[in-house]
Amino acid sequence: MHWLTTALIPAAALLWDPVAGDPTPKYNPLPPLREQARIQDAWTAERKAGIPALLKRHGVDAWVVSQREYAEETVFWSFKPASTFSARRRTTCLFLAEPLAANSSSSSSSPSSEGALPRQPGCIVGWTADVWETLKAQLEAADPATIAIDAHPEIAFASGLHAGEYQAMANGLGGAWASRMVVKPEIAVEFIATQPRSRLPRYREVMETAWAMIARGFSEAVVVPGKTSTEDLEWWFREEILAHNFTTWFQPSVSVVDQTLPWDAKTETQTETGAAEGVGGRVIEYGDMLHVDFGLTAMGLNTDTQHLGYVLRPGEEDVPQGLKDGLKKGNRLQDIVRRNIAVGKTGNEMLKASLGEMHAEGIQGRVYTHPIGDWGHSAGPLIGMTNMQEYVPASGELVAVRNMWFSVELLVEHYVPERNQTLWFALEEDVYWAGEEKGWQWVYGRQEEFHLVKAVKRQETMEEL
């Protein structure tokens, strides 16, 4: 027998749709799919126009990106047309620092290109050895001294060339051309990391929608203390995302904050306080501090947000001061990290500077900030990891570049006198490059006040389905 307890997630919350006049943040609907594709392709054209300068900056003459259907290079997803859902057959793309003359017979796509990438001149699509013959002709016309390939052993965004595809390409082109191939991870990383300015207005709208969904979820319209569990709320977020035609890149995570750090796996079915934490999650009660990790995906854009909420007790009108102070301390660490993000600095240098200021101010916390944009955990320098607070190998040695976005993710620990406990306050907000003088700024804003679940009287009902 299947049944629905409306007290778990109120029916009104499942059917809710924003209307004009609602306070900000608001839900921003996505455009029709055809319009989405037009917008995305314009972004891609803007980004691809910068490839020659990118290659010159890193001292290479050419860049080859080669893949087969369902075995695409990571960078493929950042330059494909919006209406292309995978590579076709074998799709091999050549980008040059100095494009070939327009009248060159080797400067356009192969006749076998079958329309898989119609806006990608220099991409060859085929199945037989003709692909390599066409690519060889293009290389002979350009005669690049160095050819970058994406085969780095550690950096995912620059290691998309499959081993078998590399072998086929080297065999097909011959040793003379294979000897000119070099691994330059900065090329794929910076291509993915650098965001066209025209993307920002839409990204801000997606971010505002993420804020609006969190505000809705962390409210009395959705949460019923004593009934709604953290897992109920996680799945409410999933349904809300789907209802508004967005997707996500990870399962939303909702927690009741206690003294246990969020990354310490809870294998027991009971918490230290005895509250049920096993299958179904933990039931949310009056006086709980809530945490959510939440992201939206739309039009090739990804957000990553962590906010805090508080469940008011009956008769309680505000959040306890100790919790407010913890949030304020988290805001201070956000200021520190955001200010230390700098063009040309490695992730490890930015981590060291941020932690130095954090410790000097007596803040106990951790920094694990990452790039965002095309991917939730996108290309570029990692500024710490939860278990690496001194040095991050490989990705920590990459540098920040102009026009990239970061997700400022961190945590502080703060003693709360009202509870006689030290609790964790995990926050996350995304930032964009605002120019040399302003540096990185919040895409939509940052949380400075708790979301409130107000105490209300309800009439609980149960319906048979």
TrEMBL record:
Molecular function (GO) terms for this protein are:
aminopeptidase activity
Q: Does the keyword DNA-binding apply?
A: no
Q: Which residue positions does the secretion signal occupy?
A: 1-21
- Keywords in alphabetical order, please: Aminopeptidase, Hydrolase, Protease, Signal
Where does the source fall among the domains of life? Eukaryota
The protein's name in its UniProt record: Xaa-Pro aminopeptidase family enzyme
Q: What is the lineage of its organism?
A: Eukaryota, Fungi, Dikarya, Ascomycota, Pezizomycotina
